[in-house]
Amino acid sequence: MMQLKDQFEQVYQVTEQIYVGFLNSYGDNNPLHTNAELARSKGFRDRVMHGAIQAGFLSHFIGEALPEKDVIVHTYELHFRNPVYLGDRLTLRAVIADYSESVRCFEIKFRFYNEAGTEVSRGKVSIGLI
């Protein structure tokens, strides 16, 4: 069983397949995400990837990378701090911050970092054991 202060690390990459899959699945064609020229005119180096892609990586982490498999997500918060671009390799670092035995619920705090070590997002997720 996971314990308080257990730490985890998982690496993800924003590939063309993930980006196109997101566009095809959800149809969010906001120009900041799809038009490089517009994104550059707004001060970004290229198209900014959808924040929900990081939410997908978080979902994978919870369902596939954690040692506990019988879990359900109660809530999550995800705060974006810096842009993520196509091809970026993101490292998710997470720690078990709290556990409530009475409701069998873990709180996990996490941060995503890009290859330069810049924090791109942070948040927390509450998961219950089922």
Q: Would you give an account of this structure?
A:
With 130 residues, the protein is α+β, with helices and mostly antiparallel strands. The chain has a domain at 7-15 and 51-129: Roll (Thiol Ester Dehydrase, Chain A). It is 28% helix and 38% strand. A five-stranded antiparallel sheet has the order 1-3-4-5-2, with helices on one face. The longest helix has 15 residues, at 51-65.
CATH topology description of the domain at 7-15 and 51-129? Thiol Ester Dehydrase, Chain A
Question: Treating each run of at least 4 consecutive H or I residues as one helix, how many helices?
Answer: 4
Estimate percent helicity.
25-40%
According to DSSP, the number of beta strands is: 5
CATH class of the domain at 7-15 and 51-129: Alpha Beta
Secondary structural class: alpha+beta
* Poorly predicted spans: none
- What is the 3D shape? elongated
Measured by DSSP, the beta-strand proportion falls in: 35-45%
Main features:
single chain, 130 residues, alpha+beta, Thiol Ester Dehydrase, Chain A, elongated
Outline:
The chain has 130 residues and is an alpha+beta fold. Helices cover 28% and strands 38% of the residues. The protein is elongated, with a radius of gyration of 16 Å.
SSE inventory with pairings:
Layout: E1 7-13, H1 16-26, H2 31-34, H3 36-41, H4 51-65, E2 71-80, E3 89-100, E4 105-113, E5 119-129
